[in-house]
Amino acid sequence: MNSIANKIIETRKIKGLSQEELAEQSKISLRTLQRIENNENNPRGKTLSLICNTLELNLEEMLATNQNQSPNIATKFINFFFFTVANLLLVALLGFMTIDSQANFNSRFAMVLLSILIPLFIINFTPNMSSNERLLKFGFGYLLYFIATLSIAGFVTGFLSGLFLCILINLSMLYFGSQLINKK
Question: Where are the transmembrane segments (predicted)?
Fold first, then answer.
């Protein structure tokens, strides 16, 4: 449900008005108000202005919050591209430092540390993101890399190199990290 409909319903209930009373006071049809509240259509300028005047709401605020709620296609594409590149970079770093033929104890230990610090960095810059959303956006590459390594190199190679341990640490930190940070 969009934010305009939510705000109208919330304010109407706070003021103790029924849909019929609001429609009558706003001089709009009851069916129009029902369509707006049920999110069947977006209110046009005059209709929204009448409702806002009746409920004593700021029209400009309502329009601004609704515009901020709906990202356009370009924003979605940029987000998709960014998360894809971020996942590829994180997975490449993980693979290079653990499963590469020249990887030694120091590089594997560094990757275990980075498996803790990188998700904490991500959590710090995405405080409003839920754990599930964070896991889907930043952890999807790890899941795909786990499946690819399991099918190509095998379980023994992934386990002995420390790759699977690092993936497990990364995914669990992405999911549970915000709870660890917020514990006081």
Answer: 77-99, 105-123, 135-156, 162-181
30 contacts 20 by C-beta, under 8 angstroms: yes
Overall pTM > 0.85: no
How would you classify residue 39: left for phi > 0, otherwise alpha for psi between -120 and 50, otherwise beta?
left
CA–CA distances in Å: residue 50 to residues 8, 104, 180: 12, 70, 48
pLDDT digits (tens, 9 = 90+) for 94-115: 888 888 778 888 888 888 898 8
Do 41 and 61 lie in a common domain? yes
Q: Is 172 helix (H, G, I), strand (E, B) or coil?
A: helix
Render pLDDT for 115-130 as a digit per residue (tens, 0 to 9). 889 888 888 888 888 8
Evaluate the CA torsion angle 73, 76, 78, 84 in order and state its sign: negative
